[in-house]
From TrEMBL:
Gene3D superfamilies: CHAD domain
All copies of domain CHAD, residue ranges: 65-380
Disordered as annotated region, ranges: 1-46
Name of this protein: CHAD domain-containing protein
Organism annotation: Streptomyces polyasparticus
PROSITE patterns: CHAD
Length: 387
């Protein structure tokens, strides 16, 4: 039996690596299509290699590190080791200490998955594609419980602020109200607490089932092998990492260019409230391009880490945080909207949920404004460093 199948239980679920990694490497059109999802007349990855510095990703000693296959293998091995270490801590921790190891598992799984995506032409394609898909499944499964908990806390805190109360909203007594929003806030908070706590409980059960499944053990087996033997193609050593990282940077720049940054640059522009009373999901669909930029910015950061960059541009970090807040506010607004559609709720409750939805959409707008400022400062700083 090969060590790929015998290191952990369920190892047979991971595709066996092709011992022959020859064939054309993705440095040509095939490699660009692998990174961009298909042919589309894009520039060659190396055409924008200089753009790495334009995003403020300089090496600690100055300049832009290009890296090689050994650097990629070293980075993947380090992340795989961190994954296994977090897995061990998760198994040894109690219920109270479980969130920290689970967060570490998610963090390393995202980094490995993103790196396998960016540098796919340098790796065994079938093996890396399957592992990347499974890591994305694991990261998403583990993230749901934490997301529901944070969403509930965010919404209850906003209700408390909007109601002008110092007591937790679900604990507010509905007797002797001071206004319609205060009465509705108590009932709206109780409704949100029931719905999101139920969703969190279900997500917790799903995560526990996933961590005990043969599918997860197959993922752990693949990561264990990755910690010692990165499946590079035969001719991977002849290629540098910078062109592939530059392709991610180009996609990020194109995605940001497509955003309505001019509109977002005006405070209180109410763009995030457009179609707020529509029956369709227009607000959610307008958020999609911003969510895509958030994912590309994350891929860009992981690519820079693989290149050896440790000091990421603080302006880009601020931009990433703004997009995180954007996503959280958008999802919280969607939760408030969903709760408002609950049948047979009191008018005061529906009113409070409507105010809460508008408040969170304003947070979406504020996050877009913050992202625009951080992105422009990052561009200005890189222009000064290049001059």
């Amino acid at each position: 039996m090969c060590r790929r199948c015998s290191s952990t239980r369920g190892g047979a679920g991971v595709a066996q690596r092709n011992p022959d990694r020859g064939g054309p490497l993705g440095g040509g059109s095939a490699g660009r299509e692998a990174l961009s999802g298909g042919a589309g007349g894009r520039e060659a990855p190396g055409a924008r290699a200089a753009g790495l510095e334009a995003l403020g990703a300089g090496a600690p000693g100055g300049g832009v590190p290009s890296g090689g296959a050994e650097d990629l293998a070293r980075y993947l091995r380090a992340q795989a080791t961190d994954f296994l270490r977090a897995l061990r801590r998760h198994r040894e921790s109690g219920v109270e200490d479980a969130p920290a190891p689970a967060m570490a598992l998610r963090r390393t799984a995202r980094r490995i998955s993103g790196t396998l995506h960016t540098f796919r032409p340098l790796l065994d394609a079938s093996w890396s594609d399957e592992l990347r898909t499974e890591l994305a499944w694991l990261s998403g499964t583990l993230a749901r419980e934490h997301a529901y908990a944070e969403r509930l806390e965010r919404l209850l805190t906003a209700l408390q602020r909007l109601a002008g109360s110092t007591a937790p909203v679900p604990a507010q007594a509905s007797a002797s109200p001071t206004g319609q929003l205060t009465v509705g806030a108590a009932k709206a908070g109780a409704l949100l607490d029931r719905q999101l706590t139920l969703a969190r409980t279900r997500a917790h059960s799903t995560a526990l089932q996933a961590l005990g499944s043969s599918r997860f053990h197959a993922v752990a087996d693949g990561v264990a092998v990755l910690a010692s033997d990165v499946p590079l193609r035969k001719d991977a050593s002849a290629h540098r990492l910078a062109p592939f990282a530059a392709d991610v940077e180009a996609r990020l720049t194109d995605a940001v260019r497509a955003l309505p940054l001019v509109r977002a640059g005006h405070p209180y522009n109410a763009e995030a409230l457009v179609h707020g009373l529509s029956s369709d999901t227009a607000p959610e669909s307008q958020d999609a391009p911003w969510h895509q930029v958030r994912l590309l910015l994350r891929l860009h950061r992981y690519a820079q880490e693989a290149l050896g960059v440790r000091d990421f541009d603080p302006h880009l970090v601020a931009a990433s945080h703004a997009l995180d807040r954007h996503r959280d506010a958008a999802e919280a607004a969607a939760a408030a909207s969903s709760a408002a559609r609950t049948p047979r709720i009191a008018p005061a409750t529906a009113y409070a949920l409507g105010v809460l939805h508008a408040d969170q959409r304003h947070e979406v707008e504020a996050s877009r404004f913050a992202f625009k400022g951080a992105w422009q400062r990052a561009g200005s700083a890189s222009a000064v460093s290049l001059s």
